[in-house]
Records
---
Amino acid sequence: MIEFLWNVYLIAMATLVFYLAIMNLKRNKSRINKTNGFFFGQIIIVGLFLDFVMNVIVGTLFFRELPREWLFTYRLNRHLEESSGWRLRMAAWWCKNLLDPFDPAGSHCGR
């Protein structure tokens, strides 16, 4: 059980690191050209894959439901729009503390 929880933690941390990298690329998109875009595109692909894995594993554990969406942010958005109680509070916490502050637009989660 400890090993499983450790792996869940590592998935969440890796996903957040890639999220920060992708938001930095978004912030600096005017500097991306064909040469470096090839390498940065790979970061986006890995980040999307990790987001999918996080949604399936971490999202399922945290929200105690099977995913209906492909990506974790989409699950958060659904809970912000449709849920109440602890799921709404949890989705708001993820958005307010971990995602929105690092999105160049200031709001990663739709409201």
---
Amino acid sequence: MTSLKNRKKKIVYASFIVLIAIMIFSIVSLFNSKERNISNIHDPEILRSINYEEVKEGEDAVAGTDFVKFDAFFTRDLTGSGYANKLRGSCRSVTENDTLFISINVLTEGHFEDGEITINGQNMKLQTAIVADYAVLANVISQDTKIINLKTLYPGTQKLISGIVKQNIREQYK
């Protein structure tokens, strides 16, 4: 009976050691593949974008409510996977344009009334061509959008708005 117990213990220990070895191998492989992916990137824009903070789960929370989510972000495929990562900043050179995405979601309860998205760019302009719909109060077609007025948004409403960010450095230094 004790030899049976010893054999079971040896099997459990061996399984545990194999499991740990597999985990270590997986972690090492993951780090090596990330290093390989970064070393194979030759696009300066993607290399710059790797240094930008990625949007994390839950950062779209709006203070004072559990049912309204709001966020603004840029996107880049950092890994070459074909899927975009959400970033907190634009990594384009100062002479290039970039697309800013603005996301608003009203989840399962309550509503969001008479909302307004305000753009306070210091060295940029937001060019938009937004058509009035179930979420946006009026057309917002402008080379320098400052405000996007929203209608009352009810549970289940999801809206993704985009605009082109253009540099505005020359006007700032006149």
---
Amino acid sequence: MSLSPMIVVGTTPDYVVRILKKRHPGSVLFILDSCHINDHLLSDLERDCFLFTDLEQYDETLISLKRRLSQDRVSTPGFACFDCESLIMASRLASYFKSPFPSTEAILVTRSKYLSREVWRKAGLDNPKAGLASDTDETLKYFHRFKRDIVLKPISGSGSELVFRCLDELGVRESVAIMEEQLKKRRYNPLFRPIRDPFTSVTMDPCERWVVEEYVSGPEFSCDFMLHEDNVTILRETGKIKADDQTFGSIMAYTLPPVYPEGFSREDLYRVFLLAAKSLGYKWGHFMVDFIIRENSVVILELAPRPGGDSIPDLLEVATGRDLLEEYLKIMAGQFDAYMMPPAPTLPYASINLFIPGSGLITDLDASEIIKQHRIIALLLKKKVGDRVTLPPDDYDNRLLGYCILRWDYDWDPISTCRYFQGLLKVSVNNGQSDYRH
């Protein structure tokens, strides 16, 4: 194999592998967990671009990688990672080879939604007040202390998984009951492995405790940015449209470019992003950040040293022709030139997520009415007839059927517009007792 020194650690076949293999044939080595070795999505790809290993075992992975790089005569590999659960492994491997990658200590702080809140608070950044709880009584204490709605979320989860907004004491009790039940089921999920506090060396178990934070209202946004030599370059900006008919925190659509509130200074983003990344211990890298604008102030919600996911890469490519994933690889290889980026799109675009109406076996799936709409530019379906789907709180990723990308109009009502396009999708699901039709 003609291998350039770039290694992608711990991605999944249905997200990045096929995309990167298509765009970068022979240029990337993927370290995949052994559970994917017989995945049908990999069956038509050359096997010499994969290294299968137990990604829970650092020593085993390192030995396998060293053997592989020796065979390919690569001595100075670069490293990249698209998934939060593999960031620590990627960082440790990069450190061994003395390759550029965000530090393990910084990633440990970032992976804990509680520790990152504490760091940002001490740095003077605006972010939700937060604490840790392990039962109903502790959670209720925060509910009364904050004197407003609260949000419960796992210490180290991702996206909207097990995120609850509680409006009253009953909501707190019901959400805690679900949290306690579901966290136990995730004990062997890499996202929920115990996390070492790099400041105290104390280990926190995400399956035993959770974060309680104040609810912050306001429009939400997401960005990708690059940090280099104390300078921030914003690579991507999108607005978020929340899905009010899904679990709290679920995203119905992304809009590009975003529309910030009147009076908000976009220049504030550079200052906040720089301080948010550096206070966590980062000196360099590509980052995804989610934030809310409250009274024209940036409230940081989450930051991760990886590019944005979901439909964002496809949305950016349709709107601008830019490949966010390729840019990330170039950044990690030290080859990206931010000055070569084309300007942001002047026409608005959006990607609308299409959710399944119920759990069970998909018996019918027809997206022809969506494709007929003249504003639709692209449609990607991740499911097909015969696939089995599961809904939250058991599974949060499986419910997504796919998404469509279209030319947007900011004069439209965002919720009703998204529901209109979702309603054009014909889908039936059988759960063994009844059919769900949409």
---
Amino acid sequence: MFGSHFYHEKTRKAVAIFGRLFNNVYIIRKNASGAVISQIKLPLAYAPKSRYIDRIRENPELSTDEDVAIKLPRASFEISNFSYDTTRQLTKLSNFSKPGSIGSKRTKMYSPVPYNLGFTLNIYAKSHDDALQVVEQILPTFNPQYTVTIKPFADKYPDFVEDIPIIIQQVSFADDYDGSLQQRRTIIYTLEFEMKLQYYGSLDAESAIIREANADIFFDSTNLADSDKRVERLSVTPDPLNVNPDSDYGFNTTII
């Protein structure tokens, strides 16, 4: 529909980056004397909040072994929204160039399209101490922004890097301790984040490198039948003419 097929996996990489930020969080439990009695690595998964709440509130059936209540603490995250970011939009005709397959060619990609990708991180726990341990390990990292540097096109352009800011927007919590005695108590902390992404178009289009620039100077004689006569042409070419973009070269100027 729009030309050649391309897929940079930008959203998929964004999900992997966000999940990697929180895949090494631990909860430590101590006894009355302050000695550590257990250490738990917080399980993390990409899943909607509603699905996890249903799993948490399931009653286990020990006789049939069909329903198993989920263990806490646990965390999940999901994409919450996409939004176009007008504050980061560049000129549509601006582009980035890289050397092509041969010296006389270049690969050109136009300026990316800026989007804000919203993420929601949910932390589930049975006690406030477990939940607060997780929250206090996350909040100091975002002040309120944490920037990750990635290589979006590592296979083709390993030197091309991109900074992705991740901004924490809101922190809230809920506690269902007012429920029935048969209902499990679940404390849920919800953290809202915004990731600033850039979406790129196709990178495969190659075009010839400009090796000559001409500027014509005209004499404005509007009262004559053949007005705007050319009186001079200024031509600029690289020296040598077959130079590569990364080489050291000068320019030849010819006036006709």
